[in-house]
Design a protein that fits this description.
Number of helices: 0
Order of helices and strands: EEEEEEEEEEEEEEEE
Helix content: under 10%
Strand content: over 45%
Structural class: mainly beta
Largest sheet: 6 strands, antiparallel
Radius of gyration: 20 Å
CATH class of the largest domain: Mainly Beta
Number of domains: 3
Length: 184
């Protein structure tokens, strides 16, 4: 059992036969009453997100997760394939169990969590570098306000970038929402 005060972002626990991953954590203390823990969770099996509230001191069932670093190979219509670089064993994961498959690049290594030998979820790094393959002309100046233009990245994602970014530049993208963060 694990205390609900330890349920930080990314933690995985079981409640009423369902497996959840914590997306956000909030500790609320009001006046003289006891504290309340609110967590936004994602059901691993169904993919749905909900909010759960717990009283301070409550406990949930901890799950023994095994983490492995696997290399992304390729994807087809509904499955993504990874390989263990040490044993060369291949693992397939349905697309519905993945965060956002557009961020996967062939040959890159990702952290995959396993529960009882079955792949449970894939963790993306918070930021990744991508090459801009198409964008409007770059202009200098106009820096008094944040002005953005459309850009297409090497993985097909369309995002907004500052005016000084030009085709061929490497930029960092936040993998949680696909937004430009900085020039690489």
């Amino acid at each position: 059992m694990i205390s609900v005060t330890d349920l930080r972002s990314g933690a995985v626990f079981e409640e009423q036969g369902q497996i959840y991953q914590v997306l956000s954590y909030e500790h609320i203390k009001m006046g003289r009453g006891s504290a309340t823990i609110k967590v936004k969770v994602k059901n691993i099996k169904t993919g749905s997100t909900t909010e759960k509230g717990f009283m301070n001191g409550a406990k949930v069932a901890q799950i023994a997760i095994i983490k492995k670093q696997l290399q992304f190979l390729y994807k087809d219509a509904d499955t993504v394939y990874f390989m263990d670089p040490e044993s060369f064993e291949q693992t397939s994961i349905p697309l519905k169990n993945l965060p956002d498959h557009r961020f996967f690049r062939e040959g890159d290594t990702y952290s995959v969590n396993f529960l009882e030998g079955e792949p449970l979820l894939v963790s993306l790094p918070p930021k990744m570098d991508y090459k801009v393959i198409e964008t409007g002309p770059s202009t200098k100046g106009n820096s008094a306000v944040n002005v953005f233009k459309d850009a297409t990245l090497e993985n097909g994602i369309k995002t907004k970038v500052p005016l000084f970014i030009k085709t061929g530049d490497m930029i960092k993208i936040d993998t949680r929402d696909g937004v430009y963060t900085e020039k690489a």
